[in-house]
Amino acid sequence: MPSSDFELLDAWRGGDRGSGDQLFQRHFDCLFRFFQSKVGGEAEDLIQQTLLACVEDRERFRQATSFRAYLLGVARNKLYMFFRARKPGADLSVSSVEDLGMSPRGVAAERQEHRLLLAALRRLPLELQLAVELHYWEELSGPELAEILELPEGTVRSRLRRAREALTEQLELLAASPELLTSTITDLDGWARTLKQQLERGAAG
Length: 205
Fold this sequence. Notes:
Layout: H1 5-13, H2 17-39, H3 43-56, H4 67-86, H5 112-121, H6 126-138, H7 142-149, H8 153-174, H9 178-186, H10 188-204
Helix pairs in contact: 1-2, 2-3, 2-4, 2-10, 3-4, 4-7, 5-8, 5-9, 6-8, 7-8
């Protein structure tokens, strides 16, 4: 029986639907988080498109840093195709999810800090939102992030720095009170982790 992600993908490509189902179950939560915070109700369709694209691409994954980096790189390409079809001519280096007319519907933000963090994330330029979410939620290595974002590793570090700075600026603009801002910023890692857990519950629901 195949066990690694790459082995499962090879078996799925060979016609083993059970391997495809297993791969889907392993990575559904990760893909759901990736899409749900940006496209809301379109998430499941884009997950299916991403997995089918993985089956069709027979070469790229063999050079991948990890299967998850390969998978999220495909997901990023599908996301960009979605937004370019929705908003032809939009500059995704400066346009935010909010600019592009999307909202994270269906995300059960239980705490004020979570709602504030979601609102701030969706006001970041898409490229910065991707960087900060992959960093906080997926805890990827530098080479993995570089592969997904199609950037040199040094550029990824500078983008992450800009993303954190931009996120802090949006939190300052959106916070309803100084107390809420302080609570969110002083434990940003913690709030990001618990928001990730809420997104996972949303996927299960």
